[in-house]
Write a structure and sequence with these properties.
Elements lengths: L1 H17 L3 H12 L4 H7 L9 H37 L18 H15 L3 E2 L5 E2 L1 H4 L25 E2 L5 H9 L4 E10 L11 E11 L4 H16 L5 E8 L2 E10 L16 E10 L1 H6 L8 E8 H9 L12 H4 L4
Parallel strand pairs: 1-4
Antiparallel strand pairs: 2-3, 4-5, 5-9, 6-7, 7-8, 8-9
Bound molecules: phenylalanine.
The site of phenylalanine has 12 residues, from strand 8 and strand 9.
Length: 340
């Protein structure tokens, strides 16, 4: 009997460590410890033994069974590790490899300035308003007091859609949308994309960005407009920057003006950037025309207001010394990486 037991253990010691896959190991487990195994049949025969031999044989059988179980579990652990490593290799994941450096993106310079502009106006007490890029003729022109025969309404200047709508040529229609939905006092800015049928060159792009401002209340005057714009450009370009206003015409403001700032490059001495004038054009401005107030149902006797529209692309170019507007739209990583 003892010999038989020893033989079983010897066989297990030979076969189990040599096993190379988990399925076969399961077969070996059944073979050595299952219900039909030799070990099992010996165990069931213990009762037939003379009583004095039973403890000794029983003990020997138990020890053997434990040893075989240990052989099986060690082997199982080993084979499982190997199979995990293999499947990692098959899926080409090398868990020992160090991580790859991920290059972090950065905000486009235009949107950095966009946010800086928003921050400045928020600190001045303005709220941000939004309007759609696709506009109706009413909001982009009619409500803004722009007559049918105004050159801006020409196909050569404006992108019209087949259904008669258009891509807004300015952020000014947001003025109308805000006034239609709110009563005074109003103090908003509205940055956004605009579209004009312009040929691409160093200072023109069919897609460009403006920031509109509108303030309406009782007793708003032209000095309020000048003070707001002047304090804006000083916050943006520094306290030494001076601004000036030249008379101009816009259908929706009266009086209207164009604002210039002292050239940020030469401080007014005259250089290539300012075409030797010493001044840089920043955008249009003016007091809201009473006709516009009538279109939105405001009483022009009671309320006055000012509005202005500045080019965000131009401001970005001036702030960062970018000389060609196309660089803002080409998404050339060599340019964009300089702003991270
Ligand atoms: N919308 C005008 C433009 O695009 C600028 C402007 C805005 C002028 C507000 C006056 C008041 O040229």
């Amino acid at each position: 009997m003892k010999e038989k037991i020893n033989q079983i253990l010897e066989n297990a010691k030979e076969e189990i460590p040599a096993c190379q896959d988990l399925d076969k190991l399961e077969d070996l487990r059944i073979k050595f410890t299952g219900k039909k195994s030799k070990l099992h049949s010996l165990l069931s025969k213990i009762g037939e033994l003379p009583a004095e031999r039973r403890p000794e044989i029983g003990k020997a059988l138990n020890i053997t069974k434990n040893k075989i179980n240990k052989l099986l579990s060690d082997k199982k652990e080993e084979l499982e590790k190997i199979s995990q490593r293999k499947s990692a290799q098959e899926s080409k994941i090398d868990i020992t490899m160090t991580g790859r450096q991920i290059s972090l993106g950065a905000k486009h310079p235009l949107y950095q300035i966009w946010e800086e502009i928003e921050d400045i106006f928020i600190r001045l007490g303005f709220e941000i308003a939004e309007g759609p890029d696709i506009e109706t003729e009413y909001y982009n022109f009619d409500a803004l007091n722009t007559p049918e025969d105004h050159p801006a309404r020409n196909l050569q200047d404006t992108f019209y859609l087949k259904n008669g709508n258009l891509l807004r040529t300015q952020t000014s229609p947001v003025q109308i949308r805000v006034m239609e939905n709110h009563s005074p006092p109003i103090r908003i800015i509205s940055p956004g994309r605009c579209y004009r049928n312009d040929k691409v060159d160093a200072s023109h792009s069919p897609v460009f960005h403006q920031v509109e401002a509108l303030v309406v209340d009782e007793d708003i005057t032209f000095p309020d407009l000048k003070g707001t714009l002047d304090s804006f450009v000083k916050r943006l370009f520094g306290p030494k920057i001076r601004s000036r206003f030249r008379p101009h015409f816009f259908p929706f403001t009266e009086p209207s003006a164009e604002m210039d700032i002292l050239c940020v490059n030469c401080n007014g001495k005259g250089c290539k950037l300012c075409k030797n004038s010493g001044w840089l054009e920043m955008g249009g401005a003016g007091m809201v025309d009473p006709a516009v107030f009538k279109n939105v149902g405001y009483d022009p006797e009671k309320y006055t207001g000012f509005a202005f529209g500045l080019g965000i692309d131009r401001i970005t170019m001036l702030k960062y010394g970018i000389s060609d507007m196309r660089l803002l739209f080409q998404n050339d990583l060599r340019i964009l990486k300089q702003f991270s």
